[in-house]
Give the backbone structure.
Amino acid sequence: MTLGRTRCVALDGLDAAVVDVEADIVSGLPAFAIGGLPDAACRQSSDRVKAAAANLGTSLAQRRITVNLSPAWLPKAGTVYDLGIALAVLAADDQVPQAPIEDVVHIGELGLDGTIRPVRGVLPLVLGAVRNGHRVVVVPEANAAEAALVSGVQVVPARSLAEVIGRYRRIAKKEPLEEEPVRPAGVPAPERSRDLADIAGQPEARGALEVAAAGGHHLFLVGPPGAGKTMLAECLPGVLPPLDDAQALQVTAIHSILGALHDGALVRRPPFVAPHHDASPVAIIGGGSGAVRPGLISKAHRGVLLLDEAPEFRRGVLQALRQPLESGEVTVARARQSVRYPARFMLVLAANPCPCGRAVGKAIACRCRPREKRDYLARLGGPLLDRVDLRVCVDAVRLGDLSAPPGESTAVVADRVAQARRLQAQRWAGQRWSLNGEAPGPQLRSKRWAPPRAATADLDYELETGALTLRGYDRVLRVAWTVADLRGADGPPTRDDIGQAILLRGQDVTAA
């Protein structure tokens, strides 16, 4: 035959579309063309396929070879199509039987010696194949454990093109295959994180951290250098509960695309991402000149994104966070493609009170000019800070804090956080959200969930006098519900709960 067909998968964000790989061989001058919007790496697949076939002793026909990756309107990026292209071409050249490969999804990069090398994004690719009705997937051996995380699919690990060709020839001859099922990798060893008991003093900041973890609220820490802002943020992942199955699969898929997955194991711990302040907007938000890749805000999905020395980040980066903080996802638009990635993270901003960091108390040691101090935290912008629920001043550690008994450990605080989250899960059962920090404002102000007017009197006054925006009003309600959950309340927040939420949001961090 002169026409060979098989299947592959293309990523479109976290979703995946099955790609029909068609190969046609006709008489004419020797050529190898690939169509269907391939990028540079995909176009070079022709050279890898020819070299791999030659080094295995399977030379391709010296005729015109045309490969089409359908649907042709969907951009094809990367080297995941190599194995599918090779098999389609070999089937068109009558060197591989057509019937066994037609409905099998093939994923893998070819080495020039015919080895099949691992690729990124195998988990979302296999998920896409299964959702489109395919039940057999051939993947590189190094990616087999990752692919096995998807239920309802037969994963066939492959080490070389020769091995795959031999397998299909045995299937065509109805010879038995000796294949063992691939098991997913175990849970990775937990990463060591800081313990809250190691932090000296800072009772107010520790309390705010607990509230943030319990309700999924954003946090802003302002204080002098060495006060413990970064240490507090690094303790946050240990306080958060493990991810559930759906969240773990989604987070693992993102890490797979980024090549940050270790041993193909499912990510169960909330991720912690702390980029350098010189990171570019593309690195933080996502994008790229070729394939649109997720950024660090998507890598922090269902975890913590720490922006240490936040005023030093580029203004474009800080302002680009506003939309993901509201919607929980980011849309990266390019000329050929518009891709959406999840980005539901807890934002922690840490900053000094001024460029020199000494504007504390009476600021006697500070040498910054008044305008420099005023403009430093103003770099963050009012609209961004309006989306941050908790704003805390972290004071310098004093001698008495060093001799005081240690505070509660991470494990103790994590138990209270888990209990508060269970209450929220019961309250919001059946909704699109499960945490107070994600609940829409209109829902919190509805007749079913609105606290009594006597309880919201102080909050109403703040809104009426312009001290709070409507967004700020809703965010105080969210924090108040979390404060009530932490004390185990079985009803709406009280006036004291709302008052504490107002204090946590209303601290004048610019006067730290």
Remarks:
- The radius of gyration is 28 Å.
